[in-house]
Amino acid sequence: MAKTGHQKIEWVSKHMSLLNMLQKGDYDLTGWRIGMSIHLEAKTAYLAITLKKLGAQVVVTGCNPLSTQDDVAQALADYGIEVHAKRTTDEKEYFSFLHRVLDSKPDLILDDGGDLTVLAHTERREVLENLKGVSEETTTGVRRLRNLQERGILNVPVIAVNNAKMKYLFDNRYGTGQSVIDSIMRNTNLLLAGKKVLVAGYGWCGRGIAMRARGMGAYVMVSEVDPVKAVEAIMDGFEVGKISELCKVADIVITATGVKDVLKEEDLLNLKNGAVLANAGHFNVEIPMDVLERLAEEKYEIRQNVMCYKFNGKEVYVIGLGRLVNLAAADGHPVEIMDISFALQTLALVYLSKNYATLEKKVYEYPAELDEHVARLKLKALGVEIDELTPEQVEYLKNF
Amino acid sequence: MAKTGHQKIEWVSKHMSLLNMLQKGDYDLTGWRIGMSIHLEAKTAYLAITLKKLGAQVVVTGCNPLSTQDDVAQALADYGIEVHAKRTTDEKEYFSFLHRVLDSKPDLILDDGGDLTVLAHTERREVLENLKGVSEETTTGVRRLRNLQERGILNVPVIAVNNAKMKYLFDNRYGTGQSVIDSIMRNTNLLLAGKKVLVAGYGWCGRGIAMRARGMGAYVMVSEVDPVKAVEAIMDGFEVGKISELCKVADIVITATGVKDVLKEEDLLNLKNGAVLANAGHFNVEIPMDVLERLAEEKYEIRQNVMCYKFNGKEVYVIGLGRLVNLAAADGHPVEIMDISFALQTLALVYLSKNYATLEKKVYEYPAELDEHVARLKLKALGVEIDELTPEQVEYLKNF
Amino acid sequence: MAKTGHQKIEWVSKHMSLLNMLQKGDYDLTGWRIGMSIHLEAKTAYLAITLKKLGAQVVVTGCNPLSTQDDVAQALADYGIEVHAKRTTDEKEYFSFLHRVLDSKPDLILDDGGDLTVLAHTERREVLENLKGVSEETTTGVRRLRNLQERGILNVPVIAVNNAKMKYLFDNRYGTGQSVIDSIMRNTNLLLAGKKVLVAGYGWCGRGIAMRARGMGAYVMVSEVDPVKAVEAIMDGFEVGKISELCKVADIVITATGVKDVLKEEDLLNLKNGAVLANAGHFNVEIPMDVLERLAEEKYEIRQNVMCYKFNGKEVYVIGLGRLVNLAAADGHPVEIMDISFALQTLALVYLSKNYATLEKKVYEYPAELDEHVARLKLKALGVEIDELTPEQVEYLKNF
Amino acid sequence: MAKTGHQKIEWVSKHMSLLNMLQKGDYDLTGWRIGMSIHLEAKTAYLAITLKKLGAQVVVTGCNPLSTQDDVAQALADYGIEVHAKRTTDEKEYFSFLHRVLDSKPDLILDDGGDLTVLAHTERREVLENLKGVSEETTTGVRRLRNLQERGILNVPVIAVNNAKMKYLFDNRYGTGQSVIDSIMRNTNLLLAGKKVLVAGYGWCGRGIAMRARGMGAYVMVSEVDPVKAVEAIMDGFEVGKISELCKVADIVITATGVKDVLKEEDLLNLKNGAVLANAGHFNVEIPMDVLERLAEEKYEIRQNVMCYKFNGKEVYVIGLGRLVNLAAADGHPVEIMDISFALQTLALVYLSKNYATLEKKVYEYPAELDEHVARLKLKALGVEIDELTPEQVEYLKNF
Question: Taking phi first (over 0 means left), then psi (-120 to 50 degrees means alpha), and beta for anything else, what does residue B134 get?
Answer without folding.
Answer: beta
